[in-house]
Design brief:
Elements: H1 3-7, E1 11-13, E2 20-22, H2 24-30, H3 36-39, E3 45-47, E4 53-55, H4 65-69, E5 75-77, E6 85-87
Antiparallel strand pairs: 1-6, 2-5, 3-4
The structure holds iron/sulfur cluster (2 copies).
């Protein structure tokens, strides 16, 4: 089973409260490498039509890689509340 198939087994209970927020001004002002666009295993970060960084937090795997990779402290990140977030299935 490849990684895409394994990820397809995961179930998400989506919280209406965001658990990841981006300081877009910092992204636009100081960040040249945009590491978050490349390190997220679920490819949740993207640049929108206005040129601003966005994250589709609903599909977050809660690995924390984006937080570690951001050298500019532009992210606020915490785990989703209570029973919300990803629920891993072993297949
Ligand atoms: S790495 Fe950090 S500062 Fe750069 S675009 Fe991503 S969140 Fe913004
Ligand atoms: S915590 Fe992991 S899966 Fe979630 S947005 Fe960051 S890099 Fe992507």
């Amino acid at each position: 089973m490849n990684i895409e198939a394994k990820l397809g087994l995961d179930v998400f209970k989506i919280d209406k409260e965001r658990h990841i927020t981006i300081d877009v001004e910092v992204c636009n002002r100081v960040c040249t490498d945009k590491a978050c666009l490349y390190v997220c295993p679920a490819h949740l970060y993207e640049i929108d039509d206005q040129g601003n960084n966005t994250v589709n937090f609903e599909g977050c795997l809660e690995c924390g890689t984006c937080l570690i990779s951001c050298d500019h402290r532009a992210l606020e990140w915490h785990y989703p509340r209570g029973e919300y977030g990803v629920q891993y299935r072993m297949g």
